Amino acid sequence: MSIDDKIKAMGIDLSDFTPSATLAPATRIGDTIYVSGHVSTGYIGKLGRDLDVEAGKAAARVCAIDLLKAAYTITGTLDNLRPRKLLGAVNSMPEFTDQHLVINGASELFWELYDGELHARSALGFASLPNGFAVEIEAIFEALD
Hints:
Layout: H1 3-9, E1 26-29, E2 32-39, H2 53-75, E3 81-91, H3 99-113, E4 120-126, E5 135-143
Parallel strand pairs: 3-4
Antiparallel strand pairs: 1-2, 2-5, 3-5
Helix pairs in contact: 2-3
């Protein structure tokens, strides 16, 4: 099954995406697609105070879906894309140390779509994120066409 077919089977509509009017959701240089940071729409607050790890994982999954949608605006397909690097920012309390588990919410979606193919990843804690969002993630994809 193609990746485009898998994402449709998950009920995710890649064309349902409204990019920011002030920045490019993604840009391509050669075979590399850089996707701007996308926030966890619907998930506001700090991990370790307002949200637990499971809510954080759901927030990261929201980010991952928007990352895929943004990459899709460049290529019109996910079939020729491979995630190569994620940078995850988690709005967290100083004592919260499970940022890596939160960002798993994004990685797990990519693992499912790309049959367990691995990508490089960083998961960092931040004192705050824009508008109080719980998670923001940016990505780098390789275009194989």
